[in-house]
Every structure is written in structure tokens, then in C-alpha cells.
Amino acid sequence: MDRRHFLKQSSLASSLFFVPSFIKAFENFSASSLGYKRLVIIQLSGGNDGLNTVIPFNNDTYYRNRPKIAIPKTDVLRLTDELGFHNSLLPLKTLYDAGQLTIINNVGYPNPNRSHFRATDIWQTGSGAHQYIQTGWIGRYLDAYGNKPYNAIEIDDSLSLALKGKQTHGIATTNPEVLFRTSQDPYFKNVLKHYKDEHLSEHNLGYLYKTMISAESSATYIFEKHKTASSTQEYPKNTFANQLKTTSRLISSGIETKVFYASLGGFDTHAGQLNSQSRLLKIYADSIQAFVKDLKQQGTFNDTLILTFSEFGRRVKQNAANGTDHGAASNLFVIGNQLKTPGFYNELASLSDLDSNGDLKYTVDFRSVYATVLDKWLAVEDDAILNGSFQKLNFI
């Protein structure tokens, strides 16, 4: 079996660039110091329209700017006298009523970028609009506080920049069993068997093979933990729900993972927004409902915080295709059972005082959300990880 076969057949090998390196720097760091609290991050990729998610149903400006795509007042799930949910988000209203949801409005940053790729990089690195950083904010958390390559797992086939550190990366997998089987590929095993061959070292392949050793070890550990857990909770039949189902199962297994990362795409609604966003929000809400129920049944909800964001919101004014164009500030959801400020954390920004592009002005820097989570939930030094000091919020 030649190398070409190995690269084609082994998804693990072809993904080596995002599998954690075999780093010994934190071998003496106590796993117990990481604590038991877990963070689940969900990205609504494409730029979810916040104004049709959390709807200002008593605001005439909202309806004037969106004559064909505004959500009718009669369809809004009212939360306050001014704001309500899209009717696809009924499961989130249940969490809201139970005091297990905080909604933070107008989250963004100065000089917002409206490119999907660049805006995603900014959110995932925790950088400013004019900074270009090669490591993610979770990756830097792993560099400073991680001691195992699986302390952060993305439930996907590839690893986001958010989980890439300078020394240590998180690991990506959609299915722990498949990851394990791939790591047992005969060619993969044969390569590892010859790792100590001095000839390989002469060709500077040592790092690669150490990475492969780490990958095999991580795959085995994740699989062994995953198969010890089970659940009776029924999930919707979609890819996003499967991500959350895998996440819940890993959490209940007792795996030493602090951060899980999942995503739901399709929110770039330039045309025909009403139907597509309604469908996607339902997928999100129904899957979250199953996930939270599962965590509660497993007794892990109290120690799990769920953070949902999108790389930007949408323009206040609808476009000619009955959609919305790229915007700036939007809302962010925090779900958990230890929230200090359930409900609305702050007021919606004015729809009559927009920025020069016709977008909502941000009032909460997204890095303040990160700083709060790092400091108050993960109990680590946020300043060093975020390369600066940001105001702490009072939602946890």
C-alpha cells in the first residue's frame, strides 16, 4: 500500500494539519485544574438576520424598512412589550420563560467587516477589525491551559481557526467511531511502527510522525469514552442535531474536553429570506431543545454553557430580492442554568440611528462576551488569551 492510498483512504491522515501536535509542554499540568464546566459554541454561519430572529414588533421603522420580509405582529412570539421571537423559535421561548436564556443585543466590534471569511476570522480569533492573527481564541486557551489534545473538540470534518493555537490545536471529528477506525488503518499503523527509523528523522519527518502518534492516541481515547455513554433522548433527523447529539454523548462520558464547537450553515439570505431563515431557525431551535433535554437527563446541564453567535447580522433595509444584505451588529444567545441576567441583557439599538451602511450600531464588543466566559465560566486569565483587556459582563 503506497502513500497515495494512505492519503486518499485515511481521513485522519489527510487531516493531519488540524490534528493536535504531540506537545509535552503541559504534561505536568493537572487535568483537575481545568474543572468540570464545559462550553459549547455554536456558529450560525452565513450571517443570521438578527432583526427577524429577535423582532421589534412594535417598531414602525422595522416594518417600513421591510415591507415584504418583516414578520407580522400576529406571528411573533412575544417576550416583552417591544421584542419577540420568530415563531420558529418556540423551544427558545420555553428556555427564556424558564430563566435559562440570556439574549445580548447589538453585539459587534468597531469598524465591522462585512466579508464572510474575514468577519468569521475576526470572531474566531478574537481580533480587532484591522488585526490579522493566526491563532484562535480557543486555541490560545489550549496553549495556556490545555494538557490534552482533546480538551477542545469540533464536531465537524475540519477544524475552525477558533480552535487552532500556536502550540496546540483542538481536534475535529463528526463521528468518534469513524475517527478511531481510520486511525487503525494498516498503512497508518505501519508508518507508526517505523517512526524511530533514523532515516525518517534525517528527512525532518519527526514532527509529522509525532503528530500521527498523538492523533492515534486521541482517536482511541475519544472513541473509548464515547462508547461508554448512551442516551434515550430523541433528536431531529438533521446534521446539526447529530452534532449536538454527539456533543451530549461525549459530555456525559466524562471526557476531559472543556470546549465543544458546532455550526449550522446557510444563513446568507440575500434572496427569498423568509422561507429559508424560518427553516434554519427551526432546525436550530428544535435541535437545541433536544440537546438541553438530553443534558438535563444526563445531569450535565448545570455545568454546561451554550453560546450561539453569527459572524454578522443583516442590513436593516430589505433588498430587491426579498432578502437582506450583509450587516454588522446582531444578537447573541447564552443558554445555561447559572445565568445571572436571564432574559434580555440590554435594549435593542435604535433603528433610526444607523451607521453609514444602514446597519445597527454595536453597543457590546464580542470580546467582552469572550472575556466574561473565560473569566467567570472557564476561570482562566482572559487578558492574555484575548491579547487585551475587555469589559466583563454580568450574564454569568
Automatic annotation (TrEMBL):
A Pfam cross-reference name: DUF1501
Top-level taxon of origin: Bacteria
UniProt xrefs under InterPro entries: DUF1501 (IPR010869)
PANTHER family: BLL7424 PROTEIN (PTHR43737), DUF1501 DOMAIN-CONTAINING PROTEIN (PTHR43737:SF1)
Name of the protein in question: DUF1501 domain-containing protein
